[in-house]
Design a protein that fits this description.
- The chain is α/β, with parallel strands linked by helices.
- The chain has one domain: Transcription Regulator spoIIAA (2-Layer Sandwich).
- The protein is 33% helix and 28% strand.
- It has three helices and seven strands, in the order E-E-E-H-E-E-H-E-H-E.
- It is globular, with a radius of gyration of 13 Å.
């Protein structure tokens, strides 16, 4: 799986933002790719990392654990993870089940 990333400019935000797109799967099988991408972002000047899971159609506990690991990895170096997902998606189900929105910033799109 290829994680695609690029710089992101948000009009009302002065912080440096980076956009990572996960693709169709957020599973244990792609956790290594996600971890590498997050590690690469950690070494850059990005303040916010947007993990875009809008297109995800398959997610499992391994993928959820990788999102949590990414959050704590970035938190240790004062960076923020924002999980982007769609309403009524498999990701939304896991966000609610695991309570991810209680500690990870989320951006929900229709």
């Amino acid at each position: 799986m290829n994680i695609i990333g690029h710089s992101l400019r948000i009009i009302d935000q002065r912080d440096n933002c980076f956009h990572l797109k996960t693709g169709l799967k957020l599973t244990a099988s792609v956790s290594c790719d996600i971890r590498k991408a997050i590690k690469a972002c950690a070494n850059q000047a990005w303040d916010y990392i947007y993990l875009d899971a809008k297109e995800v159609i398959r997610i499992d506990l391994g993928g959820v654990n990788e999102v949590i690991h990414s959050y704590y990895t970035l938190k240790q170096i004062s960076k923020k993870l924002v999980l982007v997902y769609r309403i009524d998606s498999p990701v939304e189900h896991w966000v609610k089940t695991a309570g991810l929105d209680k500690f990870i910033e989320t951006a929900i799109v229709r």
